[in-house]
Amino acid sequence: MNALLALLMRDIRLSTRVGGGALMGALFFLILVVMMPFALGPDLALLGRIGPATLWLGALLASLLALDRLFATDYEDGSLDLLMMGRMPLELAVATKAVAHWLTTALPLVIITPILGLMLNVELSAMGWLALTLLAGTPALTFIGLIGAALSVTLRRGGLLLAVLVLPLTIPVLIFGVAAANAAIAGPAPFGPPFTIVCALSLGSLVLGPFAAAAALRHGLE
Amino acid sequence: MQIRGENLSCSRGGRGVFAGLNFSLSSGEALLVTGRNGAGKSSLLRMIAGLICISAGQVEVTGGAEDAPLAEQTHYLGHQDALKPSLSVAENLGFWAAYFGALPDAVEPALEAVDLAGLADLPAAYLSAGQRRRLAIARLIAAPRPLWLLDEPTSALDEPSQKRLAELMRGHLAGGGMIIAAAHGPIGLDRAREIKLGQS
Predict the structure, then answer these.
(1) Interchain pair A222, B101: CB under 8 A
(2) How far is CA A171 from the centre of its chain?
(3) Nearest by CB to B86, which of A3, A18, A84?
(4) For the domain bounded by B2-196, which CATH number is listed?
(5) Does the pLDDT at position A188 exceed 80?
(6) CB–CB of B101 and A10 under 8 A?
(7) Interhelix angle for A107-119 vs A24-40, to 10°?
(8) What is the mean pLDDT of residues A178-201?
(9) Digit-coded pLDDT (tens) for A62-111
(10) Which residues of B touch A73 (CB under 8 A)?
(11) How many helices (H) and strands (E) are present in chain A, helices listed first?
(12) What is the mean pLDDT of residues A18-45?
């Protein structure tokens, strides 16, 4: 338990200090959403219609940004060897790192979503629901990305490969996340079914992600 | 506690590195692994640490904490120091100590043992190569584990630090610990047995 807390606190500290990149994702997200109205023009109805999709796509890309460093830094400085020799199962250590990553990169995205929604003319009443879909869906993005990060750990420039590996796997999350957000804003389809599927995808990847990532790491270090 | 390696073979990238290696080690003993570059010294240590697969043969452990795998009773001091530049000296050591199940009050004595207590609050980015090495060694002191695997432990260390390391190693052996070290020269262990890799 102490080891788990120590690892969680270390990763949170590392990403919030200089060069950690905790806020990089949120900044990228901000820039992407701010650019959107400039590209599309001042058509408020259009912005409102594509608002949820834009926010989801932005969150998806932003959450990928720092993911390639999740294991790469530990691999390069020898920490990964030692992490494998702890009393904690590697699966648990990997999951802990993913939780720390989610807390420092994905949670800020969820928090600033309501503010960014304003720029895309998303109704105020729907903003909370939209943020809720992201809160439910981003764990799936992190834990699916975890597998990609573990697979590309030994590659010097694994970032691009990571995106190519991970993005197709996140399509279901994107579809149901945007569907739930649209249902909350415009209807007439109910919010419940797509939202529960997003939750299910998150829970599923929460279980599968760490096992797949730990297996990939063990194999990668050979 | 006793460790026996029987008929160990190692191949890396499809190329055989060594084969048919036997060794045995009991509590309080040290083993010095020597050999030319590429003879498989580091590979042997990583194999015992469980970081790479054993191609053939086996490593047997008797005594000690029976239920724990060997990797969890082992400290591995590799070429890299596993330090984070943005964390302070004390934070770096504190993390590894906690991760390996030591109590928080083990950190300060360990820093004193490697003469880094005065730099506890300095970010590790500012440490010299030798100081980084000493901080890595402090990890072995903070969280006691019976087997130390040291890969060229004296690299980057100045003479006083080498002497201090030798003292720490002797203390570890006197307490019933075991050491397997890979090195090119003497590392200050007088009664260490030696196995030479790469002679066939």
Answers:
(1) no
(2) 13
(3) A18
(4) 3.40.50.300
(5) no
(6) no
(7) 20
(8) 84
(9) 888 878 888 888 888 888 888 888 888 889 999 999 999 999 888 888 88
(10) 84
(11) 11, 0
(12) 81
Say if CB B49 and CB B147 are below 8 A apart: no
A87 touches chain B (CB under 8 A): yes
H helix count then E strand count, chain B: 5, 8
Average pLDDT (B37-58) is 83
Task: Point out the residue among A13, A85, A222 whose CB comes nearest to the CB of B52.
Answer: A222
Q: Taking CB atoms and an 8 Å limit, are A3 and B91 in contact across chains?
A: no
| B-chain residues near A69 (CB < 8 A) | none
Q: Is A79 in CB contact (< 8 Å) with chain B?
A: yes
Residue of chain B minimizing CA distance to A87 = B72
* Interface contact B95-A83, CB threshold 8 A: no
Using an 8 Å CB-CB cutoff, list chain B residues near A2.
98, 101
* Alpha carbon distances (Å) from A124 to A2, A118, A127, B131: 42, 8, 5, 56
Chain A closest-CA separation from residue B128 CA (Å):
15
Please report, for residues A27, A195, B31, B65, the alpha-carbon distance to residue B17 in angstroms, rounded to integers and kept in the order given: 49, 55, 19, 31
pTM for the structure as a whole: 0.87
Among B84, B93, B145, B151, the residue to mutate for chain A (most A Cβ within 10 A)? B84
CB atoms within 10 A of CB A30: 18
Do the Cβ atoms of A83 and B48 come closer than 8 Å?
A: no
Kindly report the nearest CA distance between residue B6 and chain A, in angstroms: 21
Domain segments of chain B as ranges:
2-196
What span, in angstroms and rounded, lies between the C-alpha atoms of A50 and A43? 11
Alpha-carbon distance of A159 to A15, in angstroms, equals 17
CB contact residues (below 8 A), chain A span 16-35, against chain B:
17-20
pLDDT of residue A140: 92
DSSP type of residue A21: -
A203 pLDDT band, cuts 50/70/90, is: very high
Q: From residue A186, how far is each of A91, A126, A190, B99, B115 by CA, in Å?
A: 41, 9, 10, 49, 66
- The domain locations on chain A are 2-220
Contact with chain B for residue A77, Cβ under 8 A = yes
Cβ of B109: how many Cβ atoms within 10 Å? 12
Q: What is the pLDDT confidence band of residue A211, given thresholds at 50, 70 and 90?
A: very high
ipTM above 0.90, yes or no: no
